[in-house]
Write a structure and sequence with these properties.
The protein contains 12 helices and 10 strands. Strand 1 and strand 2 form a beta hairpin. The mean pLDDT is about 95.
Length: about 270
C-alpha cells in the first residue's frame, strides 16, 4: 500500500488524502495517465461522467491488477441527471463504464440552480438511496455553497469538492465545512499558471529543493484538504506524488495562506448556467 495519509469521513469511510484527477484528459490518453499514477502509488482516482473518460479509467484499473479494495474511485453525477430516474440510470452507466460493482464516492457535480432550479435536492435524496443499496460507499457534493448545503435533507455530505488553491483558498468556507463535518476536496488545486508562477511559492520551493507544484500540494495536505492534482506527463505524475518526505513550516504555510486574493478561475456555483 502507498504511504498516503487517509482522512476518515463523517460516515467512517477512509479516503486517501492525495488522489489523481483526470479532468480534460481524453478517454484514450487517460489509460496511460491513470496507469502511471497507479504505478507510482496513487490509489485514489477522481473522474466524472462529464469528463467522458470513465471507460478509459476503468480500463487502466483493470490493467493495473490492483485489488479493488486497495482503490478509492470517485465519479460524479452530471447536472442534467438530477431527477431521481435519471440519477439511477447515470450511476449504473458510470459503474458499467468503470467496470465496477460499486463506487467509493459519488458526488453531485454542480448544484446547477440556474438551469435546473432545486432539482439537486432530489438528486441528493437519490444518492442516499444508492448508498443504502451499496452502489457507493460514500456520497458527497461538488461546488455546493452553504445555501445549497442547507437546502438538502437527510445525510450530511462526506465531501464538498470545490475550487481551492493558494490564490483562492476559501478559508472562511472551509471553516463552515468543518463545522458541518464535511471534508473539503480541492479541484484545480494548483491554480493554473498564476499560482504555480508565484514568486512566494517559487522561493519556498527553492529553499526546500522541491517543485512549485510539490509545495502547493504539500500546503493542501497540511491544511487538511483532500487534493487531486492532474497531469498527463509521467515525470510530473510521479513528482506530484512525491510529497511525503518534507513538511512546510508554520511560516511557510502562513506565507502561502497570505496569497489568497479571491482569484476564482472556474465557474461560480451561484451563477453557472450549465
Amino acid at each position: 500500500m502507498s504511504n498516503v495519509p487517509t482522512i476518515t469521513l463523517n460516515d467512517q469511510v477512509a479516503i486517501p488524502q492525495l488522489g489523481f484527477g483526470v479532468w480534460q484528459v481524453g478517454n484514450d490518453e487517460v489509460v496511460s495517465a491513470v496507469g502511471k499514477a497507479l504505478e507510482v502509488g496513487y490509489r485514489h482516482i477522481d473522474t466524472a461522467a462529464a469528463y467522458q473518460n470513465e471507460s478509459g479509467v476503468g480500463r487502466a484499473i483493470k490493467e493495473s491488477g490492483i485489488a479493488r479494495d486497495e482503490l478509492f474511485i470517485t465519479t460524479k453525477l452530471w447536472n442534467s441527471d438530477h431527477a431521481a430516474a435519471d440519477a439511477r440510470r447515470a450511476i449504473e452507466q458510470s459503474l458499467e463504464n468503470l467496470g465496477l460493482d460499486h463506487l467509493d464516492l459519488y458526488l453531485i457535480h454542480w448544484p446547477a440552480v440556474q438551469k435546473y432550479g432545486n432539482l439537486y435536492i432530489e438528486a441528493w435524496d437519490a444518492l442516499q438511496g444508492f448508498k443504502e443499496e451499496g452502489l457507493t460507499r460514500s456520497i458527497g457534493v461538488s461546488n455546493f455553497s452553504a445555501e445549497h448545503l442547507e437546502a438538502i435533507n437527510g445525510a450530511v455530505p462526506s465531501v464538498d469538492q470545490i475550487e481551492m488553491h493558494p490564490t483562492f483558498s476559501q478559508a472562511a468556507f472551509r471553516a463552515t465545512l468543518a463545522e458541518r463535518g464535511i471534508v473539503p476536496e480541492a479541484w484545480s488545486p494548483l491554480g493554473q499558471a498564476k499560482d504555480l508562477n508565484s514568486p512566494v511559492i517559487g522561493q519556498i520551493a527553492q529553499d526546500l529543493g522541491k517543485s512549485n507544484a510539490q509545495v502547493i500540494i504539500r500546503w493542501h495536505l497540511q491544511i487538511g484538504n483532500i487534493v487531486i492534482p492532474k497531469s498527463v506527463t509521467p515525470e510530473r505524475i510521479a513528482q506530484n506524488f512525491d510529497v511525503f518526505d518534507f513538511e512546510l513550516s508554520d511560516e511557510q504555510l502562513n506565507l502561502i495562506n497570505s496569497l489568497d486574493s479571491g482569484n476564482r478561475i472556474g465557474a461560480d456555483p451561484a451563477t453557472a448556467t450549465f
